[in-house]
Amino acid sequence: MKRKFKKKKRKLKEEIKKSNHLNQKIKISNLKIKIKNKENENKEKKIKSFESENQNLKQENQKKEKENQNLKQENQKKEKDIQNLKSENEKKEKIIKQKDKEIQNIKLSFEKENQKEESKQNQNKLLKIFSNSEIVKDKEYVKKLQEWINDNDFFSKMKKGFSAKNDGFDSQNWHKAVDGKGKTLVIIKTKDNFIFGGFTQVGWTNDTSKWSEEHDGGNWGYIKDENAFIFSLRNDKGDRKPEKFTIQQGKEKYAIEHDLKDGPTFGSFDFRLKDKLQPGYSNFGNIYNLPNGITYGTNEAKSYLAGSYDEWVVDELETYFI
């Protein structure tokens, strides 16, 4: 009997133990469930919070989109206004350009009229100056000289500073009158009625520092002038018309020669007058350009200006300067 009782008692203890263990498990499980539920609650709260934030953000975005739409509409309106202003400005600029063109045309018209008037006045003055000339008696010669020299200041102030018939056929007299005068116009008429000459913007000077090349210990030398030229007004050979001959490129430093023993000399004896301004010598084409179709060194070139190569006789030499 005791044995049975002990056995039952032990069995009961085991069942109680098992029951306690099971209860413990249930407690732990319940605790875990509570924790899980708590976590879920927190998650739900977070989700609700996120949803609320998202809703707010969505509303803000909608508001921003609306603002952007309004701004876009305003910008479109402004762009349209700008386009209209641009179009108006273009129209105004077109009108301004047209007005400027009209003003420019009026100015050009006035300038042309003034130039014509000035040219006419200078021509009248030239005609008056040349009225006492023994050489320039043709109005067309005056027009040509005015056209070739193209210097209103020179024409408005120039005067006849030397005449061989009045001042003597002497190179020293010529240099005394001409040296240091700057712009100088030389016109020669031969006994055979050839009329030619030359123009220099720098003129003759005995100041050797202004010479481009010095010879014979400073007794003579060349003077540079890029704008010097020779001309022919009357040439009875072949009925040639008045013509201007510029200096050859690269030979500008030989434009004119200064030598007290010589009269006016252009180039390296393209034409030259000796000490008594007689006789003349012409090696035309050495420094200055020849007329088209004429070759340097030929008799045609040498005789072009004065009718012969050398020993041509000067009837009159006139020199004009300011």
From TrEMBL:
<feature type="region of interest" description="Disordered">
    <location>
        <begin position="38"/>
        <end position="91"/>
    </location>
</feature>
<feature type="compositionally biased region" description="Basic and acidic residues">
    <location>
        <begin position="60"/>
        <end position="91"/>
    </location>
</feature>
<feature type="region of interest" description="Disordered">
    <location>
        <begin position="1"/>
        <end position="20"/>
    </location>
</feature>
<dbReference type="InterPro" id="IPR006571">
    <property type="entry name" value="TLDc_dom"/>
</dbReference>
<feature type="compositionally biased region" description="Basic and acidic residues">
    <location>
        <begin position="38"/>
        <end position="51"/>
    </location>
</feature>
<feature type="compositionally biased region" description="Basic residues">
    <location>
        <begin position="1"/>
        <end position="11"/>
    </location>
</feature>
<dbReference type="Pfam" id="PF07534">
    <property type="entry name" value="TLD"/>
</dbReference>
<feature type="domain" description="TLDc">
    <location>
        <begin position="134"/>
        <end position="322"/>
    </location>
</feature>
<protein>
    <recommendedName>
        <fullName>TLDc domain-containing protein</fullName>
    </recommendedName>
</protein>
